Amino acid sequence: xxxxxxxxxxxxxxxxxxxxxxxxxxxxxxxxxxxxxxxxxxxxxxxxxxxxxxxxxxxxxxxxxxxxxxxxxxxxxxxxxxxxxxxxxxxxxxxxxxxxxxxxxxxxxxxxxxxxxxxxxxxxxxxxxxxxxxxxxxxxxxxxxxxxxxxxxxxxxxxxxxxxxxxxxxxxxxxxxxxxxxxxxxxxxxxxxxxxxxxxxxxxxxxxxxxxxxxxxxxxxxxxxxxxxxxxxxxxxxxxxx
Length: 242
Known about the structure:
- It is a multi-pass membrane protein.
- By secondary structure, the chain is mostly helical.
- It folds into two domains: 1-79, no CATH class; 87-242, no CATH class.
- It has 14 helices and no strands.
- The protein has helices at residues 10-16, 19-39, 48-62, 67-73, 75-79, 81-87, 89-94, 96-101, 103-127, 132-138, 145-155, 159-183, 189-211, 213-241.
């Protein structure tokens, strides 16, 4: 029995490096993190995105599994990000009348907000002496993960670094977004949701839905528009600068 449980056994290695283990680990960690988050009265630093990522990173490190191996084994979960993003069209449809009323402010905010999100990250990284590959990867940090990875690969960035930038942006948005909005005394659900969605993508959209459906709808709108706008504009700008 001890031989079967030994890290050197063939069964153990086959299981540890299999998609079954990676997917099960991800889902179990997320479920436990979600319970912890709810019991903490939704404390921002205990959000499942933060806790689950930290726990999985620690476990795969201890088990000797590389990030690339884990990513490839759990890739089916990454593929589900696409349909999940498309499903955000439902709350958009339900709140279409509010969106039509604010078309001009939304368009102006989108252009300035998405541009600042990309330029601020690139500018700070450039000032710190980052490489061109890093600059290109960080330009997508405010896009949802599947779009950020595809755009980063298209313009010559590094997909893993782009995903890391998205994660850091998500954590920052979770921790400081609501605090800044309350400090500025912004209580309008439409502004609240759109600001979170345009800066911290899908993770902040989930947070907006925790507030109410209207905030979630505007966060979804910001996420989709920012992704579409940036996916078109960033490659054009990069090609013009080369």
